[in-house]
Specification:
27 strands, six-stranded antiparallel beta sheet, three-stranded mixed beta sheet, alpha+beta, single chain
Length: about 475
């Protein structure tokens, strides 16, 4: 019985053995499959950067992905701190400017590059550098540079040739005057902002951080004076002030200095009051006698009407167009009657229009020691004739009866003249045009009419004087 069991076990083992062997083979085959897959993964995704791998010139060989990423970020931070330095030409000493890349709006996304370097297999055995890819907005850089140009005044504007009056003045002896001159054109330059921005971008891409000069554009000065033509003396007039007091002489000099060198723009109206400004103590004018309502009164700027009247007569000879002109209430003695022009702060003004299509220039000469003032006007209109001016009395009115007022502060029978009277007069100003050989080119022409109203003399009397 025992022998039969042994035989049965042998038969069973013999039958099961092929099955067991087959199962063991299958298990071994399956056990080997994960090992094979693991080897393949290692070959595709290395654990460290390969030998000879650089990021932006920095060796990351043998570093883990995390270590290499940290090192690459440090390199990027240092790169964005790097400065672009350039010089800009300015009037005088060139100026140097320096910008960090990050302040120029430069950015970078290093992630893809780091991953590319990490998976790179250096089969050639040569160093392999992966430069960081920097992003720049050239328009943004242009905007920064434009703002800096406005703030710093980069460049030099070209200067066109022009006419100007070179003036001189001496307050001590109350003289002023000038000479008409013509300047030459001067070239200029401007910083080429677009070119500068492009150069900055190119140097950053090339990692060239050496100093350089900003590119500039040449700007040529125009010879405008030549286009305008030659300036000629078109009008001149001189008056004298021999018996003037110290304050009046000073005021004549002061307004002469202010008008000296004035430019009368083409087609525009020139105002003496606007150009000279208010006559008051704050502006440094002296007190002197001036005409006001038919009476000589002390006032700041007294006496300056002599210069405005001289100016008026010069503009007539320059064939300009007076647009505002008022005669005095009392005819001035320094010009022919009907040819004066009074001005006053907040009151009458003398205005004249330059009817030419080119500018005109004024030279006022004040000769304090010799007590005369002269106005010259220069323009571009060539003339082959001369002008003559004169005034004629057109009508008269009787002087009104005197006015008397009692002044208790006067003596009982005292009588004091406080305002001289005058008869009324109307004067007409005429012009005649002749060629230089004396040929009459234009009949006498009425230019203007001036009326000096009659003024009643005024007296103050004491209480004992019988008033008529």
């Amino acid at each position: 019985m025992k022998k039969e069991r042994v035989l049965q076990l042998k038969y069973i083992w013999a039958a099961l053995l092929p099955v067991i062997v087959c199962l063991l083979f299958i298990c071994c085959a399956r056990a080997e499959e994960p090992v094979s897959q693991k080897v393949v993964d290692v070959s595709v995704s290395p654990q460290v950067f390969d030998t000879g791998v650089f990021i932006e010139g920095t060796d990351v060989s043998g570093l883990s992905l995390a270590e290499g990423t940290e090192k690459a970020m440090d390199v990027l931070e240092q790169l964005l701190e790097t400065r672009i330095t350039f010089t800009v030409e300015t009037p005088g000493t060139p100026l140097t400017y320096s910008y960090r890349l990050k302040n120029l709006g430069v950015t970078a996304d290093p992630g893809p590059l780091i991953q590319q370097a990490f998976t790179y297999k250096n089969t050639a055995g040569q160093p392999a550098d992966f430069p960081l890819e920097l992003q720049m907005d050239e328009d943004y850089i242009c905007g920064l540079l434009e703002a800096m140009r406005e703030e710093e005044g980069w460049g030099l504007a070209p200067v066109s040739s022009s006419y100007y009056v070179e003036t001189y003045s001496n307050e001590e002896n109350l003289t002023t005057g000038g000479v008409l001159k013509r300047s030459e054109p001067e070239d200029g330059y401007e910083v080429d902002i677009a070119g500068l921005a492009s150069a900055i971008v190119s140097k950053i891409h090339a990692r060239d951080f050496s100093d350089f000069e900003a590119p500039v554009n040449h700007l040529e000065g125009n010879d405008e004076a030549a286009a305008v033509g030659e300036m000629i003396l078109m009008g001149r007039y001189r008056t004298h002030y021999d018996d003037s007091g110290e304050g009046r002489r000073y005021n004549i000099w002061k307004i002469s200095e202010k008008l000296n060198g004035a430019k009368l723009f083409a087609g525009k109206v020139f105002s003496v009051n606007d150009h000279v400004g208010e006559r008051n103590e704050e502006n440094g004018w002296a007190v002197a006698y001036g005409i006001e309502d038919g009476v000589y009164t002390e006032q700041y700027g007294g006496g300056i009407c002599q210069v405005s009247s001289t100016f008026y007569n010069a503009t007539l000879r320059a064939e300009m167009e007076p647009t505002a002109r008022v005669p005095h209430t009392i005819a001035a003695s320094y010009v022919p009657k009907g040819m004066d022009a009074t001005i006053s702060t907040g009151g009458p003004d003398f205005k004249v229009k330059n009817i030419l299509d080119t500018n005109m220039y004024v030279i006022v000469t004040c000769n304090g020691p010799k007590s005369w003032v002269q106005v010259e006007i220069y323009g571009t209109r060539a003339r082959d004739y001369e002008l003559a001016f004169w005034s004629e009395l057109a009508s008269e009115q009787e002087m009104p009866a005197p006015i008397y007022e009692v002044n208790p502060s006067l003596g009982e029978f005292e009588k004091k003249l406080v305002r001289p009277g005058q008869k009324g007069e109307t004067w007409e100003v005429y012009r005649e045009k002749k060629s230089y050989d004396g040929t009459l080119l234009e009949e006498e022409t009425l230019i203007t009419t001036s009326t000096y109203d009659p003024i009643a003399p005024k007296y103050e009397v004491g209480s004992g004087v019988a008033i008529p």
